[in-house]
Amino acid sequence: MIAQKFFFRDSVPTGPKKHRAYAIGDIHGQIDLLDRLLAAIKTDIAKQPQSKISIIFLGDVVDRGPASAEVVERLRTLSIPGATVHFVMGNHEEVMLRVIEGEADVLRNWLRFGGSETLHSYGVDPRPLKALSNDDLAARMREVIPSQHRRFLASFSDSIGFGDYVFVHAGIRPGIDLAEQSQADLRWIREPFLEDTTDHGFIVVHGHTIASEVEVTPNRIGIDTGAYNTGTLTALAIDGKKRWLIQTSRNGERRVPLD
Fold first, then answer.
1. How many domains does the chain have?
2. Which residues contact 47 (CB under 8 A, 6 or more apart)?
3. Which of 25, 115, 131, 245, by CA, is between 20 and 30 Å from 213?
4. Domain residues for 156?
């Protein structure tokens, strides 16, 4: 499923020579869809090898779905022969880490927007946590969420460059250099980014904002197809000037040319 608009740049955007990237949208605790997509990517790599392969996860790997703990462990230990794996920080990882650090004031919103499911995946009933002090809450979170998981999530980057593309979670603030972008915008922005038609000088590949179809506009590609409620998880592949999608659902997988 693709919604595409005319591309106005003077040249076709391209990735680095002999280097392919697979960017994966918001997983949100869907271990079954993740495993199917990883298997489909491995098959894709085997069918058309490349000198260098990067796999980039665009954040929001946790919350909403039933298996965040399993997803984190799968990604933390992920090894794909011939590929390097990279992770971008999403707003859901940010809030989860803030709760772990004792910011009890953000706990209620986190629980409402997927944190309850995450805690259940770690074997915790979230209801008693609301009555804890900040210090006790942080201690309880550190007790139930393994230190390896906390360190892994905290290691995520805010942006990753790839030729004429930049991978972020949410988007960028139009008119501001990439080096000057705030973490809040990179992890949380919707407007004015989504409706902006500015040529940023690169194509922004992002998740964060759910769409029923992959969105391809002149300056961005949105690949969050709402895995936790639509059952479709999407990866965008970029190899030179070629681009294609790999999508997995509970009914199977498909590979779709983007251009």
1. 1
2. none
3. 115
4. 2-257
